[in-house]
Amino acid sequence: xxxSTNTQLPLLELDLLRTLIAIxxxxxxxxxxxxxxxxxxxxxxxxKKIEELVERPVFIRDSRSVSLTQDGLLLLEHARRVIALxxxxxxxFVTPDLAGIVRMGAPxxxxxRLLPEMLCRFSHSHPCVTVDVVVEESVVLIDRVKNGTLDxxxxxxxxxxxxxxxxxxxxxxxxxxxxxxxxxxxxxxPLPVSVWEEGCIWRNAGLNSLQEQGIEHRVAFxxxxxxxxxxxILADLAVAPIPVSSxxxxxxxxxxxxxxxxxxxxxxxxxMAEKISSPALAAADHLRACxxxxxxx
Length: 297
What we know:
This protein is of the alpha/beta class.
């Protein structure tokens, strides 16, 4: 006699989980369709199937984008674990076309804001490729790519570095003056500024603009890390020139309210060694695709 406890739960196929992850990472069905090589209508059908299987809404939809419900966030967490376990298991039995180590460099801001998610996705698609990352200033990274100790590197561009003219531009972003919400650092004279050492593109852009406008200022805080710059801002010790994407929470743009001079855009570029392995080329292609999605989001 069959017991009711033998009733099997429905299975969420890996393709459905990959689609769920793609939608969560891109923010809309159209971009997700490009990631998983399906049509937007097929993506919609897959979402419908997911919600039918779990018997509750997974996405909140509006005219431009979609976001995850609380149940969707829980499902996303498990989906990433299932996909990672699947890749690990299959990699033990199937020798992929690409295997090896990629030596990569990146400046601090890219390592903090952009690389974690990008490298996580790369590890899912290339489980037998290991990426070793070195976080350094762009001038150091350029030298290390030239001498062959790094395969590729992300660098800040348009800073006048020797070598950045050969970089492939992956992202352009506006620099803005940032300060503490409700803070008074931007009202002080001389203006307290948080920057890094000579050669830093953000330092050059910020201090040059202040000098051109004749605004009295002093370097009140120095840090090579964007986390250090944010700490100075949050303590209301200084204002700092940082990318607009780093604005948020108690850190706000103070350019307009404090009559600070506008700042130029800065660029994130990719440079590669003359002799580069197939795994490194695959990593470079992955970075290009990720930055395209970043700008489209």
